[in-house]
Amino acid sequence: QMRAMRYSLDTINIAFPDCDIDVYATTWFNYDAQDRAILYDNYNVKSFDALKNKDLNKYAQFEQQVIHSGFNSLERDSVHNWAPVPVWNLTRIELMAQNSYNKIKETDNYDYIIRSRFDVKYLQNLVPHLSTKFILTSEDIGGSAPWDHWKGIRQVFDGFAVGTNEMMSHYYEFPDWVAKYYFNEHTEVLKAERTLGWFLYKKRLNLNH
Question: How many angstroms separate the most distant Cα atoms in the chain?
Answer without folding.
Answer: 53
